[in-house]
Amino acid sequence: MLLESREKVANVPADYRFATLSDSIVRNAQPEIYALLERYVTTFSKPGHQVKSLYLWSQSPGTGKTTTASALLNEYIIAAVNSHISDGVRPPEQPAYFLDVNELQTLYNEFARPHVPAEIAERSASQYYAKIQAAKKAMFTVFDDIGVRTATDGFRGDLHNIINERVANNRPSIYTSNLAIEEMTHVFDARLFDRMRDQCQAVHFAGESQRGKR
């Protein structure tokens, strides 16, 4: 019940809910990456250890970035729940959160554009800021598809604020993108690039699309 409730509020896409590294469909296609990630998830349970952020990228779609990021988020929830229970403490209500950056930008456009009906703008704005707060405050956040090239200054500023707060408070994040981390300087300003790169390891996903291979 504790795991289920934390999964529900984590906003993990339905296709990836409860998926872990061991049962990921990407595992066989990316054996070297998954060997690295098996070691990485052990740091989730090390007391006092600062968990590193990861930047998962590939130019090709469908190579398993989102699947893998979701599995890592689920692994973090499991580790957080188990460690708190073993310490006799109630686990946090929202230890991790999955932020779909494209969805967030769609919500922004729905209330920031002129002539949007008030009821639509109010609903979209409410959802938008709720997602921002969740992404800021979660112990572990996935930013899925962060390489959006058409971001407005307002949306870009909000995204920078989320990342800035997470870095300032040493909260680990997983980023997925179709751009190499160096190319993010062309998408966001230098400050955001520096924040993303800080204590962040880039992991390149090569190979063919894994979509449809369930």
UniProtKB/TrEMBL annotation:
InterPro entries: IstB_ATP-bd, P-loop_NTPase. GO terms for molecular function: ATP binding. Gene3D superfamilies: P-loop containing nucleotide triphosphate hydrolases. SUPFAM superfamilies: P-loop containing nucleoside triphosphate hydrolases. Residues 124-213 form the IstB-like ATP-binding domain. It comes from the Bacteria. This is DNA replication protein.
